[in-house]
């Protein structure tokens, strides 16, 4: 029998973050519209989980540390980022034909879809018992902050109706950047000893970069750790 409390722990924290980002972005669309992308992200997570299971079903990959390293560093990141991208782009092809969307809305759709992806991931991890609720709670924003670079690039491209080779390259580069950071996060997460200590500093830096992008999509200046005035002295 499925434990209802575990399902709540899996789904409620990501939804609370959806509320938070909806509140923070002034141009945010209706909340029910955001929940569609949350659902799309949840479905994308199911497909990604299925696809990863098929590709990594070999015993050599599942049973050894080098195999797990290969899985987490090389195989999982492009699969997960690819399905998250599909969860945003495919619905946007339909919605953008109905109404003009701004960069902030598309960026927010990316964050919400990634949080839906996280909810599906939480369900799998918590019901299969490989992780505690505390661990999953800490990792709730990770999928969202990993997708922020290509979400921002996608927003600029689709909002401004840009189809040039330059911006296609920009989106591709942003997606590959997300895949690279995703692999690093996975690598530090499974590493032991002093190498594993880099996990939380990396997450904090990625979170800071996401906050900077969040300010940009709202037309605000990024926050300088050292002010320009102090830098001139």
Structural notes for this entry:
By secondary structure, the chain is mainly alpha-helical. It has one domain (4-232). 79% of the residues lie in helices and 0% in strands. The longest helix has 34 residues, at 65-98. The protein is globular, with a radius of gyration of 18 Å.
Number of E-type strands = 0
Cα-atom radius of gyration: 18 Å
Distance between the termini: 65 Å
Estimate percent helicity: over 70%
Largest sheet: number of strands, sense, barrel closure:
none
Note the total helix count: 10
Global mean pLDDT: 84
Oligomer designation:
single chain
Low-confidence stretches: 227-233
- How many domains? The number is 1
The helix/strand order is: HHHHHHHHHH
Cα shape: globular
SS strand fraction? under 5%
How would you describe this structure in keywords?
233 residues, mainly alpha, 10 helices, 79% helix, globular, disordered C terminus
What does this entry show, briefly?
With about 230 residues, the protein is an all-alpha fold. It contains ten helices and no strands.
Secondary structure topology:
Elements: H1 4-24, H2 31-55, H3 59-63, H4 65-98, H5 103-127, H6 133-138, H7 142-159, H8 165-190, H9 199-217, H10 228-232
């Amino acid at each position: 029998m499925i434990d209802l409390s575990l399902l709540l722990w899996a789904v409620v924290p990501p939804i609370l973050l959806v509320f938070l980002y909806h509140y923070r972005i002034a141009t945010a669309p209706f909340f029910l519209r955001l929940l569609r992308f949350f659902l799309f992200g949840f479905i994308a997570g199911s497909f990604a989980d299925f696809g990863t299971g098929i590709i990594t079903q070999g015993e050599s990959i599942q049973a050894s540390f080098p195999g797990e390293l290969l899985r987490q560093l090389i195989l999982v990141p492009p699969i997960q980022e690819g399905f998250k991208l599909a969860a945003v782009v495919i619905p946007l092809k339909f919605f953008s034909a109905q109404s003009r969307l701004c960069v902030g809305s598309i960026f927010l759709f990316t964050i919400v879809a990634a949080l839906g992806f996280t909810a599906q991931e939480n369900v799998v991890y918590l019901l299969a018992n490989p992780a505690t609720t505390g661990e999953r709670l800490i990792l709730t924003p990770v999928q969202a902050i990993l997708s922020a670079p290509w979400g921002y690039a996608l927003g600029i491209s689709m909002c401004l109706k840009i189809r040039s080779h330059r911006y296609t390259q920009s989106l591709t580069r942003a997606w590959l950047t997300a895949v690279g950071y995703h692999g690093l996060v996975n690598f530090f997460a499974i590493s032991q000893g002093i190498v594993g200590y880099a996990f939380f500093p990396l997450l904090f830096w990625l979170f800071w970069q996401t906050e900077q992008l969040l300010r940009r999509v709202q037309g605000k200046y990024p926050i300088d750790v050292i002010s320009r005035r102090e830098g001139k002295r």
